[in-house]
Amino acid sequence: MKTKSEGKSHGTFALLENVAPNLFRHSENQSYWGVKKINGKRIVHALNTADRKTADGKLSEWLADLKKVDPANRDMTLAMLLDKYEAARNGLAQSTLTGEQGRITKFRESFPLPMETPVARVRNSDIAAWLGLVGEGKRASTRNQYRAFVRALFDFAVSDTVIAKNPFDPKIIKTAKREPIIRRIPTAQEFEQIIAEIRKPTWKAVKGKRGGQRPLYQQDSADFAEFLGRAGVGQAEAAGLTWSDIDEERDLIHYRRKKTKFSFNTPIYPWLKPLLAKLRKDAGSNPQGPVFKIRDVKKALRGATQRLGLPPFTQRNLRAMRIKRLWEQGVDVKLIAQWQGHRDGGTLIMNTYTETFGSNAAIYERAQLEKAAAAEEAVIRIAALTKAA
User: Fold this and answer.
1) In this predicted structure, what is the pLDDT of residue 80?
2) C-alpha angle with apex 105: 108 to 116, nearest 5 degrees?
């Protein structure tokens, strides 16, 4: 529907005949129009019908929408809306805010309509055209981020009584389907190679950019990367680990998930104990504070995989490797989820690693069959003993 202000509708208004309060009929094509004067300004709105009954319904709907809009906001432009929206989002986490500011800048620079355009004149087709432009060649997740942003922007305009309805139509602008995820998870052998390469790099000894000797050893980075792979926890949880969190008497490590603030425990796995013993020895007789001196090993990991000619494994991949190995070794997925600080009984793990676990379906089936066979054998043995007695 097209709304015209008094200054842009002299020709049309001259042909309109008043047939009821706020309802006018075009003298030539018999179409109906709504007319309302607000704060001395006449608003003319095409109802796009020549049927009186339909026109009455559309007029009532239009007048109701007008009441939802603050007259002071009627001329708010896109530029003004973006400024208000950006100010309202300042309380977000810095990582979220950085992405949001990037999308706001992109909107200012490339939206099909000028930023001086009143918000009320934006149509779904304008939004769709912009999303097609900024989403071209991008991953589905990125396109969906832009989609969510622009929908939230105009939801904000509705809540702030700038417009009565959000022009964004989710039935037309649908969520982009995500591409299948290929998870690169190192094998046990590749993991050991990576840790050894980080611990003692094979690069040539050359001077650094500032003239100093490039380090030949990266023990701190190697310790951190090794812990991720052997403990099967995230980089944030490992970085926040303190010596007081390691309870060697009860063979437990206490963690706190950074995202959810949820506390959980994992056993001190047998394959993790040698590393912990090394770390404690390096830290002294009565270690206090953080276990690790660094918070991530992205650069060291990238360098090691490049030198070894391996895929670009990430810190998440090291954690995934341990999850996968626990699953392959027959540990119940509910217990694995518990050791990850999840409270969904393993749903997230199975959904996330479906394609990875599926590639080893035979291993899983064999493990489950062995469990079932052992249980069945125990039942038969008990029945036989009962019968003999």
Assistant:
1) 94
2) 20
